[in-house]
Amino acid sequence: AAKDGGRNGVREFDPQMRAEAESRLRLEQDLRKAVEGDEFTLFLQPQTTADGALVAAEALVRWNHPTRGLVAPGGFIAVAENSGLILPLGDWILTEACRILRRLEDAGSPCHLSVNISPRQFRQTTFCATVLAILNQTRANPRRLTLEITEGIAIDDVHDTVAKMRELSACGVSFSLDDFGTGYSSLSYLKQLPVSEIKIDRSFIQDVDGNSHNAALVDIILSIADRLGLRTVAEGVETAEDRDFLKERGCAIFQGYYFSRPIPVDAFFRAYAPPALPENVQPRVEADAL
Ligand code: C2E
Ligand code: MG
Ligand code: MG
Ligand code: MG
């Protein structure tokens, strides 16, 4: 906190606070250059059935920093949100995601794609028009696009939030309530927001098999979703035990390190949507397999 008793009664910040403020400012400047310089990339993490069949993927942004290497979103999304840089960055993410969606469809893959939308991005009055323009420009199928939102989006104005969701839903886009169960009034938002999917937060999934509290909560979340006719995605599934527990209780879709970490787009295509071979052409047998 600011200390009293500085020279001439001017409040002086302690050195640690100043250092933090300076490093935040530097990060913001770096981020601004990164947005202009195209330093971002999307990773894809598969969402599968219990048996590992691919249903969809979540797009997760990474910052390819010139000196720090790949930076995870935890290290910059909050700063992007507070500085407003999330707006150009969010547009880039949506455009890139829709291009990937188009590529998947062209490759004959039925894979859907989920994209995280930050509150500030969603609250823009032009949000719906932007999403529709990007879908149009990339020729991606809106029925394969899911927007992941959190309760934070609705806090200011539930009415406006619902109106935007309805507008996009009417065009085929669907919504998922991310990090479900971690907010202040998850059930109240679940009642009001027209989502078709909930993602059970990783904190409930972790060790769901060994932790009876988590097991009880996940059980209840799954039965609420079932009663409301919502699809459920479990995020952060790390072990076969977690997977088995969730499968037994009717969870539909699984995402987590047990199945796959988030991977670069090219690796994702190689693993899940390889280019179709022309007819009558047999795969070449590798020499060392003979
Ligand atoms: P989220 O949307 O809840 O994404 C899931 C996070 O859990 C990802 O972290 C993912 O890598 C991680 N995860 C998945 N499976 C496992 C697992 O089995 N174990 C563990 N320990 N972690 C797992 P990531 O990529 O670091 O993203 C963190 C958060 O940053 C996201 O949470 C989301 O809130 C935000 N974020 C990521 N990409 C974007 C984006 O493109 N736009 C916006 N606005 N936010 C994003
Ligand atoms: Mg998400
Ligand atoms: Mg989540
Ligand atoms: Mg989360």
UniProtKB/TrEMBL annotation:
Residues 24-276 form the EAL domain. This is EAL domain-containing protein.
